[in-house]
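Budget justification aside, the reviewers requested a transparent look at the raw inputs and outputs of the sequence design task funded under Objective 1. We therefore reproduce one unedited record. The lines immediately below are the structure tokens for a 230-residue chain.
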């Protein structure tokens, strides 16, 4: 059975193009062009994943997201944001969006991110949070809190840990982490993943020369140690 995708986008040309691309990728697509019709569409069609623009007529994408999450709906949602609207991205993630992508974007990156959302939903469900050495990582809001308050980590830093936590104990190649976190068409490199791991190790006080939690597997990738190993 084809995965059902709900696309909520009001720009006609973009909506048609995205719908066609998703159908070519094997999705069954339902298109909604107004924010005030989105929640009903979710209830009527029960999609496996949702691509939701923020700027919509009738009701904003953030309002739609809030309605769904307040009702306890954990539908995987990728938000489309205007370029440079960092505030909207952060608010969306804090409200429970699973991912975001700023416009303009490469279609291949959008397709890759939606595939990643579906994989995570199917593997489900990874932990919504994890605590390592007194630092609590919240994977819904992509924030980290230590004993002295919120830590200065980026959403992508925490997203890297989320990917590792969902397959805890397994070695995950760096290229897989790049695809999950940034998308195939992003400018991120394997070195970018290394930098995220450095930031995470610093946050939890993991010795980079002899790490106990975020383990480097030479020539293969990274692994989050199981609790009984560390």
């Amino acid at each position: 059975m084809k995965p059902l995708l709900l696309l909520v986008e009001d720009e006609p040309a973009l909506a048609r193009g995205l719908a066609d691309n998703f159908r070519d990728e094997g999705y069954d697509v339902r298109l909604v062009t107004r924010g005030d019709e989105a929640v009903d569409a979710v209830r009527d069609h029960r999609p496996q994943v949702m691509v939701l623009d923020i700027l919509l007529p009738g009701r904003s994408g953030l309002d739609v997201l809030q309605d769904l999450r307040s009702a306890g709906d954990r539908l995987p949602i990728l938000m489309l944001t205007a370029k440079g609207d960092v505030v909207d991205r952060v608010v969306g993630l804090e409200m429970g969006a699973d991912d975001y992508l700023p416009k303009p974007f490469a279609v291949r990156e959008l397709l890759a991110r939606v595939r990643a959302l579906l994989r995570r939903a199917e593997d489900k469900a990874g932990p919504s949070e994890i605590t390592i050495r007194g630092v609590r990582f919240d994977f819904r809001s992509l924030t980290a809190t230590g004993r002295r308050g919120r830590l200065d980590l980026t959403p992508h830093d925490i997203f890297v840990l989320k990917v590792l936590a969902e397959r805890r104990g397994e070695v995950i190649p760096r290229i897989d982490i790049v695809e999950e976190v940034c998308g195939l068409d992003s400018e991120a490199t394997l070195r970018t993943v290394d930098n995220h791991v450095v930031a995470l190790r610093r946050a939890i006080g993991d010795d980079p020369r002899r790490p106990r939690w975020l383990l480097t597997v030479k020539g293969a990738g990274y692994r989050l140690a199981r609790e009984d190993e560390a």
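The chain has a mean pLDDT of 88. Residues 129-224 form a domain with the Arc Repressor Mutant, subunit A fold (CATH 1.10.10.10). Computational costs for records of this kind are itemized in the attached budget.
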